[in-house]
Amino acid sequence: MNQVVSAVKKNLDLSQNRPIKEAIYEALSKTILLGEIPSGERINEKNLSENLNISRTPIRYALERLDEEDLVERKTGVGVLVKGISINDAYEIFDIRKELDVLATRKAMRLMTPEQFNQMRTLLEETDRLNAAGRVAEVMAKFTEFNNFIYDASHMLRLKMIVNQLQNYLIYFRDISINGDDRRNLAIQEHWLLYRGMLNQDDDQIKLITREHLEHSLHYILKVMKAKHIE
């Protein structure tokens, strides 16, 4: 079994009730974004199909989506090659997030009801409990829930559409970032600071904490990418 098949197989989750083509797409996307398939490596559709015991149709669907997202490229006479994600991509995505998240958080702050602030506090308390219990996967889910809570509360539908287009990148960057205990603990503290800034209607604190929070995540991610020799 070659490197590509082994890496994809490790990230392939067929336990959930969803179309196989989506599971294959997510496994390939995660494997590429985490740098587990080196840039320039060829993905052999036939080889994947045979080793994963899956028809070529869902694999072809996944590769077409990845081509549209510029994570792979098709070369005549060669096949599908991994392009992956670069350090410059990470900088660009986090620059976008800084602007969008500050905007969404300020808007949400002004629109949220006392009940919604209580819901946010409960969400943060649940995150604390899960983190103390070492349930890292559930903490990751709570981080996504926290971000989505703010996007939904902002009522900025087009902003959320833009964020959704970056979702795969954001999820895998998040997974890299908060897998480290120190970074995860600090990120939880930063979410609490953000909550208090929103509660106090403090624009300056929201801008400062949001930017610092994302800058800390970026630095951790860059360290991991460099350790994997991703340039």
Q: Give the mean pLDDT.
A: 88
Assign an overall shape. elongated
The CATH class of the largest domain, by name, is Mainly Alpha
Beta content comes to under 5%
CATH architecture group name of the largest domain: Up-down Bundle
Radius of gyration: 19 Å
Count of domains: 2
The CATH topology of the largest domain turns out to be: Four Helix Bundle (Hemerythrin (Met), subunit A)
Helix proportion: over 70%
Give the neighbour order of strands across the main sheet. Answer: 1-3-2
**Regions with pLDDT < 50 over 5+ consecutive residues?**
none
**Largest sheet at a glance?**
3 strands, antiparallel
Q: Number of DSSP strands? A: 3
From N to C, what is the helix and strand string?
HHEHHEEHHHHHHH
Distance between the termini: 27 Å
| Number of helical elements | 11
Structural class: mainly alpha
Looking at CATH, the homologous superfamily of the largest domain is GntR ligand-binding domain-like
Labels describing this entry:
three-stranded antiparallel sheet; Four Helix Bundle (Hemerythrin (Met), subunit A); 74% helix
Spell out the blueprint of helices and strands.
Layout: H1 3-11, H2 20-33, E1 42-43, H3 45-52, H4 56-68, E2 72-75, E3 79-82, H5 87-111, H6 114-132, H7 136-154, H8 157-165, H9 167-178, H10 181-199, H11 203-227
Antiparallel strand pairs: 1-3, 2-3
